[in-house]
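Dear colleague,

Thank you for sharing your sequence with our group. We've completed the structure prediction you requested, and as agreed, I am returning the results in plain text so they can be pasted directly into your records. Please verify that the sequence below matches your submission; if there's any discrepancy, let me know and we will rerun it promptly.
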Amino acid sequence: MSYNPRLLLNQLSMNSPVFRHALRSTLAMGSGFALVQVLPYVAHSYWILLTIAVIMRSNFSVTRQRWKDRLAGNLAGCVLTAALLGVSPSPAVLVAAFFFALAITHTFVTINYRYTATAACVMALIQLHFLNEGGAFAIGERLIDTLV
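Please find the predicted structure tokens below.
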């Protein structure tokens, strides 16, 4: 099998959709990384870069829709988790909620990304609650990262 370097060189122009997507992704990740460097907290600063990587798609309209779904899903996930933790449930209830969120995340990943984002947020925050039971800062940090 042989490869023609000309094929690669043809992609290095603004007419190439591959090049435009690579440029958008590079600018978005670079901006996110620069922002992470100036944020006052560092415990979960990678969430911003992870969100950028998950949302970016080759088509801008799809990226914009995923951004809206991720924003709404994370806000709903933060509210649901805060409400759940506010009633101080037993660890068994939290584990059951975690597995329910896990099922929702995998069920709706190709059907409705908003539901997937909500359930994934609930899963992440419940896991962080188990790791650091006294800290409620993770929900606030997740809200800040979502809005950024």
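Summary note from our side: DSSP finds seven helices and no strands in the chain.

Kind regards,
the structure core
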